[in-house]
Amino acid sequence: MNAPMPVLPQYKTDLITRQLCATAHMDAEFAREVLEEYTVDRVRSVGLPFGVNLVALVRHALVSARRRDERDRQLLALQGLFVLLVLAALGALGQGSSGVAGGLGVAALAVLPVGTVVVYRAEWAVRRAVLDLKDSGTSAQRLAPAADPALEQDLKSLRSANMVVYGLEAEAQNPFVGSGWRITESVWSPFDVSKPAQAPGGGTLTPVPFTAADLHHHLAKTMPRATGLDDLRARNRLYVRGPNVVSLGTDALPDPTRRPLASIPSSLVKSGAVHSGAGMETYLCLWVSGDGGQVLVSMHLKALLHLPMLSWEVAAYVLPPLGPRFKLPAEYATSASRLRWGAVLAAVRLTWRGVLGAASRMLRRRARAAERARTDERVRREILKGYRGHDYGSVNSLRERAARWDEMGYTERRDAQKYFKLMVQGVLACTAEFLESRNIDTADLTHQQQQIVSLQTYTFNGAIGQVQAGNQNQLNVNQGGQPLAPPGGGAGAGAPGGPAGVVAPAGLT
Predict the structure, then answer these.
(1) Are 399 and 16 in contact (CB under 8 A)?
(2) DSSP class per residue in 147-166
(3) pLDDT value at position 501?
(4) Most CB contacts within 10 A, which of 208, 245, 368, 381?
């Protein structure tokens, strides 16, 4: 009898969420970005959080923000004490009391070691939180205290969203906001669905009428089985142009001065699959992620039924791995004791700036929050005055901005191609299965199948660039030209260098 094969180490299933949560602890600017996007009451919608546990991310970002605020409140008190002691020492020196002035000077300098302790506690708390995310088997969500229940419920609702509102900036390039880099976009060759199927005993069967919504529903149920991808998820979503969401009324926008809802009545979604509205169409969204969620492939399908012909509109996208900003600093490969020593060194190095810069840091944060609030309030006033052109749509998502195409390695490229090809084959197989269940002959679909498959294969290496039709109708995505990246994707949160480079937990912001 053969001995059982050993199980190789596996990535954590929530690896991407853990990396984002760790960065929220190490990088105060990223934590602020998370909280502004998901906790502040804004007017524009947010992109879908593909592969990210938003509840966990927001919890850790809140912990990071509270730790930073508490640190700076303590340092502000020390800064005030230091300034008072220095002024008192100068006053005593001016009065000729050199002994008193010296004592006050020594007391002022004694403030700095206390500041070192305050900074050390914050620096070590950051490292300890990141170590827990890196090494603990506990879920990332349970490693941070719960946030406001209403907020967490809103974040959970995004997982089951059936409406996406896309901004005008994204309309031409990627209306499927949050999906990442486009790898293909096409309309398959139409095939005839008007001929009845042959009955087993001779003659023909009576075709059963169907709508595009029926076909969408069938694929949503059967695609995981047809592709063999157990983790493949499917959902019909109504994609709505940003300014047009107001025409859906209170079903989608109960308060015009708030974000649109993430979930709307299913009847509206079903209707959008049969008859497109003004700037709104329903797509069947399929997505599956690779090991650890590092790469995610999504396909957006729309059945184009114009009897007697049926076709599919297909758009496929890839979310690459996270950029360099979200990789742990090299010091995290050391032991916990050396990491603690690193916190000590960081505290010593940052003490002077930590104490004397506390007031300016707090003022900058308050000024930024006040400016954001003024901007939002100005938009709300315009809406209440009857301005109907407001764009409620999102342009991208935080996960999308965090991704970098040049982080795609061989394994990620292979997985992306594999998932895409399995989805294409699954769509064809499920479509044939559905038509057979409706007593419709599938001969024309079978005839078109090889051409459809050949047109939907693709290869890519390096950065996505211009798309060209190659030999034998193969779609080649070559280097050079303008990358087919989402608006704002891969150039903000995930970019290397400057404020978006690898962030070590040894700075004060």
Answers:
(1) yes
(2) --HHHHHHHHHGGG--EEEE
(3) 40
(4) 245
Q: Which pLDDT band holds residue 489 (cuts at 50, 70, 90)? A: low
Q: What is the pTM of this model?
A: 0.88
Task: Measure the CA–CA gap between 484 and 462, rounded to whole angstroms.
Answer: 13
CA-CA distance, 90 to 134, in Å (whole number)? 50
Name the residue type at position 403: A
Assign 286 to helix, strand or coil. Answer: strand
Question: Residue 103: what pLDDT?
Answer: 85
Cα–Cα dist 371/306, whole Å: 51
Mean pLDDT of the chain: 87
469 has a pLDDT exceeding 50: no
- Determine how many CB atoms are found less than 10 A away from the CB of residue 396: 28
Residue-wise pLDDT tens digits, 281-328: 999 999 999 888 899 999 999 999 999 999 999 999 999 999 999 998
Note the Cα 189 to chain centre separation in Å.
33
The answer to whether 151 and 225 are in contact (CB under 8 A) is no
Q: List Cβ<8 Å contacts ≥24 apart for 458-466.
A: 458/183, 458/184, 458/417, 458/420, 459/417, 460/183, 460/413, 461/413, 462/406, 463/405, 463/406, 464/181, 464/182, 464/183, 464/405
Q: What angle do CA 11, 289, 310 make, to 5 degrees?
A: 165
Name the residue among 472, 490, 468, 496 with its Cα closest to residue 481: 468
Residue 256 neighbours by CB distance under 10 Å = 17
**Percentage of residues in the chain with pLDDT exceeding 90?**
64
Alpha helix segments (H runs only) across 136-245: 149-157, 168-171, 212-227
Amino acid type, 470: G
173's tokens? 């390039």
Q: What is the mean pLDDT of residues 153-169?
A: 93
Predicted local distance difference test score (pLDDT) of residue 484: 63
Q: For Cα atoms 485, 491, 497, give the angle at the middle one, nearest 5 degrees.
A: 145
Cα separation of 242 and 311, whole Å?
A: 27
Q: Half-sphere exposure of residue 150, counting CA atoms within 13 Å on the CB side?
A: 3
